[in-house]
Specification:
The complex is a heterodimer of chains A (347) and B (203).
Chain A: H1 25-33, E1 43-45, E2 54-57, E3 62-72, H2 78-95, E4 99-109, H3 115-132, E5 135-143, E6 148-158, E7 173-176, H4 182-190, H5 196-206, H6 211-217, E8 223-228, H7 233-245, E9 248-251, H8 262-267, H9 273-282, E10 286-288, H10 294-297, E11 306-310, H11 312-325, E12 331-337, E13 344-346
Parallel strand pairs in A: 4-5, 9-13, 10-13
Antiparallel strand pairs in A: 1-2, 2-3, 3-6, 4-6, 7-11, 7-12, 8-11, 9-12
Helix pairs in contact in A: 2-3, 4-5, 6-11, 7-9
Chain B: E1 3-6, H1 14-26, E2 30-34, H2 37-49, E3 52-59, E4 62-69, E5 75-77, H3 80-90, E6 96-99, H4 109-125, E7 132-135, H5 141-145, H6 147-158, E8 162-166, H7 167-172, E9 183-185, H8 187-196, E10 200-202
Parallel strand pairs in B: 1-2, 3-5, 6-7, 6-10, 7-8, 8-9
Antiparallel strand pairs in B: 2-4, 3-4
Helix pairs in contact in B: 1-2, 4-6
Classes of the chains: A alpha+beta (347), B alpha/beta (203).
Chain lengths: 347, 203
């Protein structure tokens, strides 16, 4: 891609990067609350609990999972952007305890831009879908000045393995399978000030599938609930899980894995707009008992890790399994308690 | 002269990066103009981490965030008349001079012509310089024929002041080939400079 230098950088064509481009959660819930959603007995998980994917019971007892995720370019390398977008879209299936089966590309691309860039984006996506074991069946492309890419993914699971965010149990331990801070690092990358180590860790984390983490979860009956951490941030997704389960989540701030350099950049004001939207929406449901940077807890993640609620008995076994299988940093970051004064307490 | 950085229309994190580079390069006080509240909040974080305090003042769509070294990072939002004062102060480098004739004031022509020479000399010695000097109608006699004024204008130009001369006016007076300094411009540009200026000084 030697001619890439002459062209506009991919991230210069977009306003918001990655999952930071999500519509504010407050607006979304207002819109959804005004919609008449038809009831169907086969819908096991619908849009009511802000879960990762929809779940529909098929005739033979298997459960169909459907999800869709796409966003504006968040990396100047189109191949890497394609991988990130695909890993992010596939993640919703893993967060439900499923196996991705088929995928469809969703593409927005400027008519005037070099078509070889689009080819690289799709190649990145196809490689990740292949790694997941699913197949790309087609897609749809719309002309748009802002390049965007993602996938609609269909997966399969069964009642025994289905993981919703509503089933966390009191006394559970919380495990996070990737470090947080991708929103901050993507912003810094866009501005050309991210350190090499930070960029490498963020890109490595965003392009990693949550497949191995999902397979590890499948081995432990004590895994009760799961969600993946994306645009609504660790804090936001933890609050959604706590609300759906009517419990409180306590996060030990010192135990949360954070991408190298992200805390320092946040202190210097490299904070994406999505963080402020997350704070506005989720802030009232949280209490900070420790002096921990709120800009990290509410940093919108792109292709973030799984947040797993697991029984205390199985937590160590799952952690051992995860540490053996994952290339990203993971850790036990907190626990689930009876509902107290707030849904999220950061200690 | 207090530096003013324009980051209006720039998406986050660009305003913070512009300000960070300014701090690292000059370690001095400066103002940065932005157009959204997120940028103000992020600049406040930057200021705090670098030992600056900030003041921000809103004027229409634009917010001027002033970085003041040695502060603790507190962000004071100023109100009403204070905003007016700050908005005028922001005018460092954003005001313009309009010359619609070749003399200063009304009265004796010779005196008016000498006053014009003195005006441009005085301006060239100022620390607080305008962004642009705009010549229209009879004003175009100055950058074409008045040797002393041309000398002062050269000093101003070398200090970064933009000099725009009405092309229609030069044509009308047959002076287009006589222009010694400045760029031939048009009503669109000249009027635009005046509309966007923090103040217009008409002599």
């Amino acid at each position: 891609m030697s001619d890439k230098i002459k062209k506009r950088r991919l991230t210069e064509m977009v306003r918001n990067c990655g999952c930071a481009a999500k519509l504010a959660p407050g607006i979304l819930s207002d819109v959804l609350s005004g919609l008449d959603i038809p009831q169907n007995d086969n819908v096991i998980v619908g849009i009511e609990n802000s879960d990762d994917a929809g779940a529909y019971r098929l005739d033979d007892g298997r459960i169909l999972l459907q999800t869709l995720d796409f966003f504006p370019a968040n990396n100047d390398d189109p191949y890497i952007f394609g991988q990130i977008a695909a890993a992010n879209a596939l993640s919703d299936i893993y967060a439900m305890g499923g196996t991705p089966v088929t995928a469809l590309n969703i593409v927005c691309f400027p008519g005037s831009a070099d078509i070889s860039i689009l080819r690289e984006i799709l190649r990145g996506g196809a490689d990740k879908v292949r790694e997941s074991g699913a197949v790309v069946m087609g897609g749809h492309t719309v002309e748009d000045p802002e390049p965007k890419y993602g996938l609609s993914v269909t997966g399969i699971t069964d009642a025994e393995h289905l993981l919703a965010n509503r089933n966390a149990e009191e006394g559970d331990v919380l495990i996070l399978t990737k470090p947080i801070g991708t929103g901050i690092i993507v912003s810094a990358l866009k501005g050309g000030i991210a350190g090499e180590g930070s960029a490498k860790e963020a890109v490595g984390s965003m392009t990693s599938l949550n497949k191995a983490a999902c397979e590890a979860m499948g081995k432990f009956r004590g895994v009760h609930g799961c969600t993946d951490v994306t645009g609504f941030s660790l804090g936001g997704h933890a609050i959604e899980m706590a609300k759906a389960s009517s419990l409180t989540i306590e996060i030990e701030s010192g135990s949360v894995p954070v991408i190298e350099g992200a805390a320092e950049l946040a202190e210097e004001g490299i904070v994406p707009q999505g963080t402020y939207r997350n704070k506005d929406f989720f802030g009232p449901d949280s209490r900070f008992a420790a002096d921990f940077n709120e800009d990290l807890i509410f940093d919108p993640q792109t292709s973030g890790g799984l947040l797993i609620s697991v029984s205390e008995e199985d937590a160590d076994g799952l952690m051992r399994e995860l540490k053996a299988e994952l290339s990203t940093r993971c850790g036990i970051i907190g626990r689930v308690t009876a509902k107290s004064d707030n849904y999220l307490i950061v200690k | 002269m207090r530096k003013v950085l324009d980051a209006a229309g720039k998406e986050c994190p660009i305003p913070v990066i512009i300000a960070k580079k300014e701090i690292e390069a000059n370690h001095a006080d400066f103002d940065i103009i932005v157009d959204n509240d997120i940028a103000v909040q992020n600049l406040t974080k930057l200021a705090s981490s670098k030992g600056y305090s900030v003041q921000s003042a809103k004027s229409g769509e634009l917010i001027t965030v002033s970085f003041i070294s040695g502060g603790a990072g507190a962000c004071e939002i100023m109100q009403d008349e204070e905003i007016e004062n700050v908005a005028a102060g922001v005018g460092n480098g954003s005001w313009v001079v309009f010359m619609g004739k070749d003399h200063v004031g009304e009265g004796a022509q010779e005196l008016g012509s000498n006053l014009a020479k003195m005006f441009f000399y005085t301006l060239s010695q100022e620390e607080d310089l305008p962004a642009s000097i705009l010549f229209m109608n009879g004003g175009v006699n100055l950058p074409t024929k008045d040797e002393q004024v041309i000398e002062h204008l050269k000093v101003l130009r070398d200090k970064g002041v933009e000099i725009l001369v009405c092309g229609t006016c030069l044509d009308y007076y047959g002076l287009k080939d006589e222009l010694k300094i400045g760029e031939i411009s048009n009503m669109y540009e000249i009027a635009g400079r005046m509309f966007r200026a923090s103040k217009v000084v008409t002599v």
